[in-house]
């Protein structure tokens, strides 16, 4: 049976509380949402929150000098333009912490920082902008000791199951005759 809208909302709220998610509503200038949508189209990203989260984490990883260099990008229009577009970002603790760090470095509020970040990334050549929207790639390296332990335990499990014994090629003929 399908859940009612109220049940879905309650489930979503429980999940958000469990993950310590914070719902941020960022007020930005007109055109910022469209700029974000263009970046998302370039990168093949469907969720606005995912695109903003990736940019926030990439910028935080680059450090303060890179952030300040990026934010030198000048936007058209004065500072007195009304910020009446809303961008929603559901931020988990790591993303919220990275955003707070960026705000401290840039001496901006989250609204202005995200707005300037989006426009600055969009002003870059496409290939360079994609670096800010690329999901992280994790490299998994197994230690030789772990590989050996896994191999030994696998062999023990194989030998414990009847019918799954390892029969070397020379003994294969003897097993059929017997």
SS element count, helices: 9
Distance between the termini: 59 Å
Question: Would you tell me the structural class of the helices and strands?
Answer: mainly alpha
Q: What value does the average pLDDT take?
A: 84
What's the alpha carbon Rg, rounded to whole Å?
26 Å
The shape, in one word, is elongated
Strand order of the largest sheet: 1-2
Give the helix level as a range of percent.
55-70%
Oligomer: single chain
Number of domains: 2
Strand content: 5-15%
Can you tell me the residue ranges where pLDDT is under 50 for at least 5 consecutive residues?
Answer: none
Write down how many β-strands occur, each being a DSSP E stretch of 2 or more residues: 2
| Major sheet details | 2 strands, antiparallel
Order of helices and strands: HEHHHEHHHHH
Protein name: DUF2336 domain-containing protein
Organism: Pseudomonas rubra
Plain-language structure description:
This protein is mainly alpha-helical and 178 residues long. It folds into two domains: 10-133, no CATH class; 144-177. Helices cover 60% and strands 8% of the residues. The chain has nine helices and two strands; from the N terminus they run αβαααβααααα. The protein has a two-stranded antiparallel sheet with strand order 1-2. Helix 2 (32-43) packs across helix 6 and helix 3 (48-62) packs across helix 5. The chain starts with a helix and ends with a helix. 17% of the residues are buried. It comes from Pseudomonas rubra. This is DUF2336 domain-containing protein.
């Amino acid at each position: 049976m399908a859940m009612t809208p109220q049940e879905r909302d309650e489930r979503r709220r429980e999940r958000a509380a469990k993950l310590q998610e914070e719902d941020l509503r960022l007020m930005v200038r007109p055109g910022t949402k469209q700029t974000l949508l263009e970046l998302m189209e370039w990168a093949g990203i469907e969720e606005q929150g995912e695109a903003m989260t990736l940019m926030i984490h990439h910028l935080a990883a680059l450090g303060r000098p890179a952030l300040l260099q990026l934010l030198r990008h000048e936007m058209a229009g004065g500072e007195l333009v009304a910020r009446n577009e809303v961008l929603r970002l559901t931020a988990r603790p790591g993303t919220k912490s990275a955003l707070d760090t960026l705000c401290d470095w840039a001496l901006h509020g989250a609204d202005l920082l995200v707005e300037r970040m989006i426009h600055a990334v969009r002003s870059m050549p496409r290939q360079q902008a994609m670096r800010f929207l690329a999901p992280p790639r994790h490299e998994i390296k197994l230690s030789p000791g772990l590989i050996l332990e896994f191999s030994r335990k696998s062999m023990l499990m194989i030998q414990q199951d009847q019918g799954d014994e390892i029969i070397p090629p020379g003994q294969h003929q003897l097993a059929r005759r017997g």
